User: Fold these one by one.
Assistant:
Number 1:
Amino acid sequence: MKQEQPFEKSEIILTGDRATGPLHLGHYVGSLKQRVSLQWMHEQTILVADMQGLTDNAHNPTKVSSNILNVVADYLAVGIEPTQTTICLQSQLPALAELTMYYSNLVSIARLERNPTVKSEIKSKSFGRSIPTGFFTYPISQAADITAFKATLIPVGDDQLPMLEQTNEIVRKVNKLAGKKILDECRPLLSNAPRLPSTDGKNKMSKTMGNAINLGASEKEISAAVKAMYTDPSHLRVEDPGQVDGNIVFTYLDAFHPDKKYIDGLKSHYKQGGLGDGTTKKILEECLQDMLRPIREKRAEYLNDKAQLINILKKGSKSARENSEKVLFDVRGIFGLNIF
Ligand code: ATP
Ligand code: MG
């Protein structure tokens, strides 16, 4: 999906995270960092997606409920500012579920089956034929989330591109039915690390796969994760020339190290030979420790005051609830149902 130049005007931003675990480095570099800077210029809503979290966890709902405040603490710890960003809880916004019902009538099973992200998630979760209906249809509920706020810009990882395409298809169908523009199409905002791999390089870093370095990771956990990181298997001796492509240490250095010129120099050195994996890992570890230390400390402070986190979520949900009712009214009207 084409990514256009953002920031031409004031955008409406909507993003969210499933409450399926604490947030990790993939969230940080794929979306959270952008949200932090965007919030000062644009209208931003962030959804803690508890209902979407349940679509593959209904047998274990505490996994979702116990992570709601963790996610809010992660937001605050990285610099999301509740006076600038509305932080809300998906299940507290009934308009989203209602919109999902209306939109469901506009999307075929065949179209849902073609969504490549859902397809690969179904495979990795080994659902077989027992795919929960809510999981299969979650792209429709994401369309409801996005359109309820008339969002135009969505800072996401690249796994979400098929969801935005599907959202825009729904938007076009709704507008066609209405005979005028009721809903807005949205576009993605990808970062320079739109799919951070896990430390073994095998998969996308994700909460559910248990392969993540969390934002609240301890010093020891960070150190162990970097030490176990996949590099270049054919780089056996320090003096051997090494491969940078596919070397996860360099993928992470590209994603997180603030000095790009320095990393370019390291890469040339590594390719020539004479630079050991122990040294590159040490540089990466220091960079991650420095970056995560203040986040970990703030996160722990926020989690010490759960009442404050609940208040932020309550306040944000109230304002988002009112906001989302407007689009619901318009969509209901298209189907001729605003009869009283
Ligand atoms: P789950 O395993 O429960 O699906 P997740 O780790 O995939 O969790 P989500 O809540 O699904 O996280 O994703 C929230 C946002 O973070 C989305 O915009 C997604 O694209 C982005 N994101 C998640 N993981 C990564 C990653 N590894 N790299 C870049 N962006 C990511
Ligand atoms: Mg996900």
Number 2:
Amino acid sequence: MPFKPRVFSGMQPTGNLHLGNYLGALQRWVEMQNTHECIYCIVDMHAITVWQNPAELRQAIRDVAAAYIAAGLDTKKSIIFNQSQVPVHAELGWIFSCVARLGWLDRMTQFKEKAGKDKERASVGLYAYPALMAADILAYQATHVPVGEDQKQHLELTRDIAQKFNNDYADGIRAAGIADGLFFPMPEPVIQGPATRVMSLRDGSKKMSKSDASDNSRINMIDDADTIGKKIQKAKTDPEPLPSEEAGLDPRPEADNLVGIYAAMADTTKADVLAQFGGGQFSTFKKALAELAVAKISPITSEMRRLTADPAEIDRILADGSRRAAAISQPIMDQVKDIVGFIRS
Ligand code: TRP
């Protein structure tokens, strides 16, 4: 079966979204709408692999939906929905838990990081997380998955699951009339763009993260202009002026990060930014960066506020997206059930 290009990606509804989520993911998702059929999910089932307060979770799902739309995801072009509203994810996730091997999951570095020292107390769901992620993607036979570097290993596992399913059930797949035996595609990660990795403003070697104890380490999408300006002003730098060439950023993670953020927001390259600011002091550059950040983020923030003021409207959008998502994934799931040997009516 030749697979038509289809994009799937998702984000967890946990905590406030920050500039790293926007530049590393959302901005790219928005662009892909113009070239691809896109499906964007709020992965609430992944969120509960660690404890979530129910009221906060509900709020976070709506907040992320609002952020998606405020950032430019368009329900006329793309499907936007929350994972738990489409039962196929759970169903296919279970089947993939039976396809994936313990040895494969044992290698997942994200589990090791998230489970920490006491892995006996981590949830079974946290361990099985990548099988559910594979189900998210393959339930739509998606071919392209825009993600950060940290998700590359999960994408490899997704391909391993797709391949093992195609092999294990080869006879049933051919019996279903799929002559080339490829029921699931081998989805590729899409990792590109100048600010794929936005780092902490306090430490250029750490990713910008919602779980960092210091709020000054990140720019939240709900920060006001004043806060954004102050955080950029306080951002860690070094005593040297900015280099004129990109190579000069190499041993300077903080400078590299700020230049990368500027480039991503201005939709240009680091080389271009350095052509403009190279040789100058950080104070001048930071002023320009703060202005650009405010110009970019403020309209998104006010749109997010407008949307979250009407939760019923957000719920309606998610219900509609979920129906459209199910219209694609349910027929695929029906075929999976037949191939696996289940009975359905
Ligand atoms: N694991 C991803 C993350 O933490 C979120 C995710 C879940 C996802 N399912 C997905 C991303 C499917 C892309 C495709 O960022």
